[in-house]
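quick one, two chains, predict together pls
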Amino acid sequence: MVDEGEVRRVAGLADIRIPDDELAAFTASFNRILEYFDILDTVGEGTVAEREIHTVLREDEPCPSLPREAILENAPAGEDGFVRAPRVM
Amino acid sequence: MEGPYNAYITRRQICGAGDGPLAGRTVAVKDNISTAGCETTCGSRILAGYIPPYDAHAVALVRASGAEINGKTNMDEFGMGTTTENSAFGPTLNPRGEGRVPGGSSGGSAAAVAGGLADLALGTDTGGSIRCPAAFCGIVGLKPTYGRVSRYGLVAYANSLETIGPMGRTVADVSALLRVIARPDPRDTTMRGRPYEHDPVREIEGRRIGVPAEFFGEGVDPRVATTVRAAIDRLASLGAEIVPVSMPSMRYALAAYYVTCTSEASSNLARYDGVRYGPGGQTARPWHDAFTDVRSAGFGPEVRRRIVLGTFALSAGYYGKYYGKAQAARAGVAADFARLFGEVDLLAGPTMPTVAFRLGELADPLSMYLADILTVPANLAGVPAISVPCGTVDGLPVGLQLMGRPFDDEGVVDVAAAYEGAAA
C-alpha cells in the first residue's frame, strides 16, 4: 500500500500534478493495480534470457538531417534559430 | 465528430491514388504514426498542432504503393486503452454494435475499415491494440513479428512491445498491406531484415495447432469460448491437428505486461514538456513548474496514471519488486512460447475474453487492463498474432486469435486464410 503523499511524491518526479480532488481516487486505483502486480512475487528468480535483438549503433559520422527550420516550426517559442525553454536557474 | 463513427481525428486526403500494388485502395492511418505535413496527435491534447516534418517508414511505403491515404484515425491517447474512449477527441463508435466501443487502442482504424470508410488501415499493437478492435469490429488485424515492420516514425509508447501492423476486411487484404510495409529499414535498429513477400495459401493439412487451456479460463465469456472452439473444430476439419496444451506463464503475463509498458511509457513520455512541440508553457516560470503545468493540462487521466505507475515501478526501492520481476516473468512467457513451438506450429484461442463492451462499461482501470489478458502474451514474446472474425455472440463479432513462431507471419496468415475461406 502506498499513501497519498507517496503517490504525490512519485507523480512529482514525473512532473505530473494530481489535483487535490482527484488524489484519493487516484491513490485507490493505484493501490488496486499494485495489489494485482503482487502476483509477480510468485515468479521464480530465474535468469532473464538474453534477447536475440541487439542495439546496433551506426558509425559516428555526419549525415544529412532535417532542416533546422522544419524542426523549429513545431516549437511553441523560438528565438534566433533556437527553441526557447523555461529558465533553469 | 468526424463522420458517423468518429473514426478519424483528421479526415482528408493525405496522398492521392497512384500506381502500384495498392492502386485504387484507400488506407487510413492511426494517428500515432507520423505523416509529413499532416497533424499527428496520438489522440492527445499535448500534441495538438504537431505537424511531423517526416514520414514514418510504413507511411512512406504506403504512399509509394499507389494507395490513397484518406486520414488519421482516432485512438486511445498514446495507445493507452482497450476501448478508444481515452481519446482527447471523444470516443469512436463501433459500426457493428449500437452503443458499443470499437475496442482499442486502434479503434478508429478498425471502425474506418468496418464502417466502409477505408479499405485498409494501419494500426499499432503494444498489448493487443490491433487485434482487440479487429475482433470487436469483425475485421482482420495482424500484429506482425517484432522486428518485421520498421517503427521509424511511430510515436513511442513502449518500444520493446509495440509494432505497426495491417488491418482489413479480409486476410488477403491484410497480407497485401503487410507486403507493402514489411521492408528493411536501417533507421529502426531492431529490424531484422526479413521482408514479407507472401500471398496467402489456404492449404493447412497436417499443421499442428495448440490450444492452451488458459485461453479458455476464468473471465472468458462461455459463449465466446464456445464460438472459438467451433472455429478451431473447423480448422480440424480442414486437416489441421488440434493439440491441447498448457501455458502456465499466463498467470503472471498481464502483470508483467503492465509493469513493462508503464515503465517504458514513463521514460518515453518524459519528452512532452512544451518546449519543442505541442502547446507551450510559460517560459518565465521555473522549469519544473512550467513542465508540470504543460503535462498536467495536456495528458488525460489514463496517461497520467501510467506515467506515475511506471515512474513508481522504476524508482529506487521498488525496481527489484516490479520491473526486475516483470522481466523475469516476461522471460517465462517467452520460454513457454518457445517450448510450445517445439510441439506445435501455431497456437489458437479467442482474441478477447468477451464481445465489445458498452460505452462507459469499463470505468475501473484494472478491469480494463484485465481485458487484455489474451493479447499481451504475443507482445511479451514478440511473436506474430492475427485476429480473424469467427462468428457472433448476441449479434456482436468474435475474433479467433492465431499466434505463430517468430517470423512465421506467413504461417499465421495461411491458417487465418484457410479458416476464412471455409467459414465463408
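The CA atoms of residues 385 and 403 of chain B lie 4 Å apart.
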